[in-house]
């Protein structure tokens, strides 16, 4: 039996770049380049097939916007995966989609291609907020698409964002209620990050007057925790909520520090003790693969100390934290002994709790950066 891994596939294409987004994605790309990119993905997969014995437990097709490309590319790529690798029969296979590029035809093709989970980028259901984000769909379009999704997918996720220009408690509460009315099994709530190189970053001076305050943003977050919890969509990771049995298995691999392979430009892998970072430039990615060289431009050995650090920081992202016995099993040392000074300090500030698990308190969730600092 092969080594069990998660497979991430990066699709770096979007109809139009949003004003806040620093994900590696490109708009206005010609179909011939898209087709070449998908051929390159297959070649990159071939490398893993020829060199390793692996069993795929989860597949995540992310972006960018995978729904922006011809669905035949997605279907053919998944067919390639299924015919060349051992894929677990209950494999969770997710695709990310945007409201403006999804339609019934695509949804049917996805279902036919073994995709059993769909993640839709809603962000907000307020048209003023959507416009300020540079989204090219209206809230009405989102509602139509959500109606379509519930007809075809039992397992789906809705991405929402907080801390947006013009957003306030009332508008966010309305967005949440409308989303909850579709009975989603999974919801992600991301705090807007203003990243260097984006339009939001460059225009921050004029933007800052219409951003909610930090306190308001935190109130939106805790409103989401409460409202989602009230309808059985439980908080299980800093930004993620799910009904029982609908936690995202693929993303749990990251937070549990398990192995995964990422293919495509800018994809990362954590495999056989190393982290690999694929080249971000689209043309470079295609030409590297064409010439038979590796897609990664950086490879980093994760030594035991680094593994411990990553396990702590990623594990603390889960609301239940990480299991102290599992820590000892992995690293042959008791967490509470080795890190007693940090634990005592963080406990004094009310940021962490220790029982069978080590976890953030509510205050610790709001001040997570301070906690990370202790372990970096
Ligand atoms: C890679 S995007 C894919 C989804 C899809 N392309 C879309 O935008 O609808 C994944 C999610 O990351 C979140 N996101 C993107 N940029 C962000 C930012 N700067 N701050 C916070 N969340 C962000 C959005 O919620 C988005 O839906
Ligand atoms: S948020 Fe989604 S649609 Fe917008 S640019 Fe980023 S990946 Fe593309």
Give a short overview.
The chain is of the alpha/beta class.
The geometry reads as: globular
Counting DSSP E segments of at least 2 residues, the number of strands comes to: 17
Distance between the termini: 36 Å
CATH top level label of the largest domain: Alpha Beta
Which stretches are poorly predicted, pLDDT < 50 over at least 5 residues? none
Give the ligands present: S-adenosylmethionine, iron/sulfur cluster
Named at the architecture level, the CATH assignment of the largest domain is Alpha-Beta Horseshoe
Structural class, please?
alpha/beta
Give the proportion of residues in helices: 40-55%
Provide the domain count.
2
CATH evolutionary superfamily of the largest domain: tm_1862 like domain
Rg from alpha-carbon coordinates: 21 Å
Q: Mean of the pLDDT scores? A: 97
Q: Can you list the strand order of the major beta sheet?
A: 9-10-8-7-6-5-4-1-11
CATH fold naming of the largest domain: pyruvate-formate lyase- activating enzyme
How would a textbook summarize the main sheet?
A: 9 strands, mixed
Q: Percent of residues in beta strands?
A: 15-25%
Tally of individual helices: 17
Keywords: 4Fe-4S, Chaperone, Cytoplasm, Heme, Iron, Iron-sulfur, Metal-binding, S-adenosyl-L-methionine
Function: Probably acts as a heme chaperone, transferring heme to an unknown acceptor. Binds one molecule of heme per monomer, possibly covalently. Binds 1 [4Fe-4S] cluster. The cluster is coordinated with 3 cysteines and an exchangeable S-adenosyl-L-methionine.
InterPro entries: Coproporphyrinogen-III_oxidase (IPR034505), Elp3/MiaA/NifB-like_rSAM (IPR006638), HemN_C (IPR010723), HemW-like (IPR004559), rSAM (IPR007197), rSAM_horseshoe (IPR023404), rSAM_sf (IPR058240)
Protein name: Heme chaperone HemW
């Amino acid at each position: 039996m092969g080594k069990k891994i998660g497979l991430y596939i990066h699709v770096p294409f979007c109809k139009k770049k949003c004003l806040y987004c620093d994900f590696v994605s490109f708009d206005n790309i010609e179909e011939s380049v898209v087709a070449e990119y998908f051929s390159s993905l297959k070649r990159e997969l071939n490398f893993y097939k020829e060199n390793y014995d692996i069993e795929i437990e989860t597949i995540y097709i992310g972006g960018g916007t995978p729904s922006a490309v011809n669905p035949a590319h997605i279907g053919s790529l998944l067919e390639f995966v299924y015919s060349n690798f051992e894929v677990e029969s209950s494999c969770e296979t997710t695709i990310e989609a945007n409201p403006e590029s999804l339609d019934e035809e695509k949804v049917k093709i996805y279902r036919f291609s073994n995709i059993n989970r769909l993640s839709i980028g809603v962000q907000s259901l307020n048209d003023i907020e959507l416009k300020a984000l540079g989204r090219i769909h209206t809230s009405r379009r989102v509602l139509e698409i959500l109606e379509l999704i519930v007809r075809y997918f039992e397992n789906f996720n809705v991405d929402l964002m907080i801390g947006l220009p013009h957003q306030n408690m009332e508008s966010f509460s309305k967005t949440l209620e409308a989303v909850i009315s579709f009975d989603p099994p999974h919801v992600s709530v991301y705090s807007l990050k203003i990243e260097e190189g984006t339009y939001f970053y460059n225009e921050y001076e004029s933007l800052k007057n219409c951003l909610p305050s930090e306190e308001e943003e935190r109130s939106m977050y805790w409103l989401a925790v409460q409202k989602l919890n009230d309808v059985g969509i439980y908080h299980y990771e800093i930004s993620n909520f799910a009904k029982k049995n609908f936690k995202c298995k693929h993303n749990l691999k990251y937070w549990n520090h398990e192995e995964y392979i990422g293919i495509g430009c800018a994809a990362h892998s954590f495999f056989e003790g190393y982290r690999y970072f694929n080249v971000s430039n689209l043309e470079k990615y295609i030409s590297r693969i064409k010439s038979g060289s590796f897609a990664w431009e950086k490879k980093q050995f994760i030594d035991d100390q680094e593994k411990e650090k990553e396990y702590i920081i990623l594990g603390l992202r889960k609301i239940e934290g990480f299991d102290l016995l599992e820590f000892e099993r992995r690293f042959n040392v008791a967490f509470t002994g080795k890190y007693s000074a940090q634990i005592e300090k963080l406990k004094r500030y009310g940021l962490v709790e220790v029982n069978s698990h080590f976890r953030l308190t509510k205050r610790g969730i709001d001040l997570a950066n301070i906690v990370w600092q202790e372990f970096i």
